[in-house]
Amino acid sequence: MKTRIKWVEGVSFVGEAGSGHAVVIDGAPEHGGRNLGMRPMEMLLTGAAACTAFDVVSILRKGRHAVTDVAVAVDAARAPASPRVFTALHYVYTVAGHGLDRKQVERAVLLSKEKYCSATIMLGRTATITYDIVIVDGDRVPDPA
Fold it and tell me: Which domains, and CATH codes, for the chain?
């Protein structure tokens, strides 16, 4: 796996992954940025959420569970001083489907957290990780209020 970061100006960068996909990364205006993209730590947190969501969908589908939608929200706390690592992460998995078994959804989340999601496992070296699971009977996870 490879990635490349190219400085654009100020504290704005374009990151290009080995897959050829690109993303803008920028800093907050108070740090010289223009608010053109995610902050680096937001990108890391988003990647971890995507990693575990990928696992949960995959595990439930392989088990032939009628999952129709998944959203993962993460609330993170960081150390007050540099390096400002993540110290606590709280994941909320909202899983939609028809007739989903809570135990099977919980199993998928635990397998991701403890075995498959390398991003979450890596972040767990500095952060306490907790989670909640919300199951929605239906086709879609509601948009956040």
Answer: 1-38 (2.20.25), 40-137 (3.30.300.20)
